[in-house]
């Protein structure tokens, strides 16, 4: 059957809109399969279809529908012919409904379940989510009109899925990005009307990261990531250590100074990483959702970097709030490297074991 239809591939097909596309044999096969025809009935119809268009310079979608309908009736398949016509009408009506902005806005205002609960990460009871849903249903309707007809209808049928149709292709936003935190934290950055200087402590560094994440998440519709966060934040934790060591040299006996400074720094690191976890999980972007955030870590080897790694995992294992709930974000990606943390003799093997414990207790589906 496919072999016969491939004879028509070189003939263009003109849509109702006047747009021309190539002939796709699978579409004819798809329709015939849906009609439940026997193999012999399908072969007869295909043979007639090919002979009808073999010498044509152009096929129109109207002609294709008419030939298929006439061929079905010629084989006394009247019910199949009616089903085919009904299928076409339903396809057109579904596309018209999907691209009707007013109709889709009304669905939202009427609290249609499919509209208000389509994204489990969005609380449709809060105002910024409602505003985002309003923009989203309009963008979906307009986006389907912007897409090529074949793509839009394939999406509506479920043959393919156009990801984030409530933003793309209508809005010129980016999807996901790997944020260059190192550049911004090192050299400072501007958000709104404020110029933010390089942080002088790990607590300030994670607070600035939260602000950056909130702003980036509101300017795009996908996730944002922080790479090697243990190595990224280590210089700012070192500033904490130097401050505590200076205080220790003033108030603590000499043989206890380093130990004192380290313990104080470890507490600062834990508090900073805990604050980052809570900040991300209590933020709402302009899309009315928690920022999709991923942080990567695991390659650092210094005691400060190791402490950051341990703190991230221990905080996640502990959970959020008095109920100790599993945090949805940030997603944690722990890097495993031979000679560093893979095998029992590796220096950071204990942290890998902690990561495994974290995964078993706090893996979020």
From TrEMBL:
Question: GO MF terms on file?
Answer: ribonucleoside-diphosphate reductase activity, thioredoxin disulfide as acceptor; ribonucleoside-triphosphate reductase (thioredoxin) activity
Q: Name one GO biological process term.
A: 2'-deoxyribonucleotide biosynthetic process
Name the domain of life: Bacteria
SUPFAM superfamilies the UniProt entry points to: PFL-like glycyl radical enzymes
Which InterPro entries is this protein grouped with? NrdD
The residues forming a coiled coil are none
One Gene Ontology CC term in the entry? anaerobic ribonucleoside-triphosphate reductase complex
Signal peptide region: none
Q: Which PANTHER family match?
A: ANAEROBIC RIBONUCLEOSIDE-TRIPHOSPHATE REDUCTASE (PTHR21075)
Protein's recorded name: Anaerobic ribonucleoside-triphosphate reductase
Instruction: Name the species this protein comes from.
Output: Companilactobacillus farciminis
């Amino acid at each position: 059957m496919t072999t016969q239809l491939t004879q028509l591939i070189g003939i263009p097909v003109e849509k109702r809109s006047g747009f021309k596309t190539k002939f796709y044999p699978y579409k004819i096969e798809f329709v015939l399969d849906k009609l439940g025809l026997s193999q012999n009935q399908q072969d007869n119809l295909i043979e007639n279809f090919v002979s009808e268009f073999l010498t044509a310079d152009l096929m129109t979608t109207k002609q294709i529908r008419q030939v298929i309908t006439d061929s079905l009736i010629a084989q006394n398949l009247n019910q199949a012919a009616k089903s085919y016509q009904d299928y076409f009408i339903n396809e057109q009506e579904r596309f018209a409904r999907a691209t009707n902005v007013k109709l889709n806005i009304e669905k939202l205002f009427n609290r249609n379940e499919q509209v208000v609960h389509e994204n489990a990460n969005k609380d449709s009871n809060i105002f910024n989510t409602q505003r985002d849903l309003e923009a989203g249903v309009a963008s979906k309707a307009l986006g389907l009109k912007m897409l090529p007809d074949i793509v839009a209808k394939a999406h509506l049928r479920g043959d393919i899925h156009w990801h984030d149709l409530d933003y793309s292709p209508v809005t010129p936003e980016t999807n996901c990005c790997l944020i260059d935190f190192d550049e911004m934290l090192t050299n400072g950055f501007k958000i709104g009307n404020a110029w933010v200087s390089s942080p002088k402590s790990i607590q300030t560094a994670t607070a600035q990261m939260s602000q950056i994440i909130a702003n980036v998440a509101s300017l795009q519709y996908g996730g944002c990531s922080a790479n090697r966060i243990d190595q990224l934040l280590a210089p700012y934790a070192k500033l904490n250590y130097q401050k505590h060591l200076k205080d220790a040299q003033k108030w603590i006996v000499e043989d206890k100074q380093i130990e004192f400074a380290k313990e104080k720094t470890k507490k600062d690191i834990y508090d900073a990483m805990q604050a980052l976890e809570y900040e991300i999980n209590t933020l709402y972007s302009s899309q009315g959702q928690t920022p999709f955030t991923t942080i990567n870590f695991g390659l650092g080897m210094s005691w400060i970097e190791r402490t950051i790694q341990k703190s991230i995992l221990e905080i996640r294992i502990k959970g959020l709030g008095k109920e100790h709930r599993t945090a949805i974000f940030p997603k944690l990606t722990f890097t495993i490297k031979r000679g560093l943390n893979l095998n029992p003799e590796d220096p950071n093997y204990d942290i890998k074991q902690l990561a495994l414990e974290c995964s078993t207790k706090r893996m979020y589906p």
